[in-house]
Amino acid sequence: MLMTFGIISLNINGVIAVAGRQILSEWKAELKTEVKKDDQHQSLQYHLTRLVGGEDRTKLETTGFACDNTSWSLVCITNNPVKIDMSTMHVHLQSSYPDHKSANENTTTTTIVRPYAMQENPWVMNDITPVIITTTEPTQLTCDHNHKHPAVIFSSGGYTGNIFHEFNENLLPLFITTRMFKSHVHFIVVDHKPSFIYKYRRVFSRLSNHEIINPLNDSSVHCFPSVITGLKYHKFLGINTSENPQNSYSMPDFRDFIRQTYKLKTQSIFDNLNGSDPPSLLLISRQTTRKFLNQQEMVKMMEELGFRVIIASSADEMSNVEKFSHVINSCSVMVGAHGAGLANEMFLPDGAVMVQVRPLGFQWDVDSFYSAPAPGMGLEYLEYMMQPDESSLVDEYGLDHPILQDTASVAAEGGYDAARKMYLDKQDLRLNLSRFRETLIEALRLVGRYKDVANA
């Protein structure tokens, strides 16, 4: 049955309050043990209900099952015991609420959830393994494994392998959904990708004290006191504190969590500001599309302005999060053309500057992806808008062609796919160094190093 808060509780100072009196917890060792166990159960129920709101919260409290379908995501919660058949990914609800069954005892309620954070992405959802949540109570389904902590079911499918989507649709939603449980949860990962799990193993181990369960390698029945199916999603690379349980977690909290997870030393670029050391600039150098055709000249200019330039171009190097995060964390400025690599801003210290070079003709969601999230991370954001003569498309079409002078016409005729193919997949960049220099000087101003630029 649903537990409610009693008259015995722990306050924030570690003191037990009993019927209006306070007793130091160490004076009553036997009472402390009893309250701690009860408080854990109450806390679990409390946290589960905070994952849904309004009528859904009332439904969860009265029936033991409810789904929240807001802000792109779909999250279903049961705060009653469940049996999960890993071979079929059927979650069998075991309700102890008399109101949970309908008047017709044979009626079965079934909910299908594809547990991916961004439910509105049609290019992904069809490939996500469905989880069937049902009120059926099949015979001969016994528990092979009994667990005392809740399960969280999510998919590592979709766009994993792309750092933007890994943070946007996996790691951030996982943090939002599970951080309040203090690692007392079991992760069940459908569409299990070993490379993704290994890449972020430190993150997973800090959010859960248990080994990840992979249904592809486990056909047994696991029983849990409750289950969360799906992850809560707020916005691109961000957290809406007002939507979060208890208003307790924010983007700075997530950034602190990441810094602690990877033992990143620099919290702010101003912590150890030494005027004698050149500021470090990380240049994300793409090797396929949106390459900087005059990169050598760009680097020379950056060094003349006083930057120590670090060039990141190896996919293998950048995929090693444990090492590459330390490189990024040592930098004051990061520069790159629009693309997933800019999501490495997550590892920059507070006060650092992220400079996005916007490709010609492709502006869809660029603000949502990087410029809008930056302030929430404690970062400064600058952008460099390409002009037609800076695009490699000039070489093929000529400067006066509509592809360069009327970029909106490409999308108007062929839609998103045509625009993406032309301006993201086919275009390289040849920056005007005089114009781009002004952007870098502004970056120096923002990191407090403008005084080092002679005759700027």
TrEMBL record:
Q: Which GO terms describe its molecular function?
A: pentosyltransferase activity
Q: Where is this protein localized, as stated in its record?
A: Golgi apparatus membrane
Q: Note whether Glycoprotein occurs among the keywords.
A: yes
Q: Which residues form the Glycosyltransferase 61 catalytic domain?
A: 254-355
Question: Which coarse location class applies to the principal site listed for this UniProt protein?
Answer: Golgi
- What are the UniProt keywords, alphabetically? Glycoprotein, Glycosyltransferase, Signal, Transferase
Membrane association type: Single-pass type II membrane protein
Which cellular component terms (GO) are annotated to the entry?
Golgi membrane
Respond yes or no to whether keyword Glycoprotein is given for this record.
yes
Q: Which residues form the signal peptide?
A: 1-17
**Organism's domain of life?**
Eukaryota
Q: What is this protein called?
A: Glycosyltransferase AER61, uncharacterized
Q: Which organism is it from?
A: Artemisia annua (Sweet wormwood)
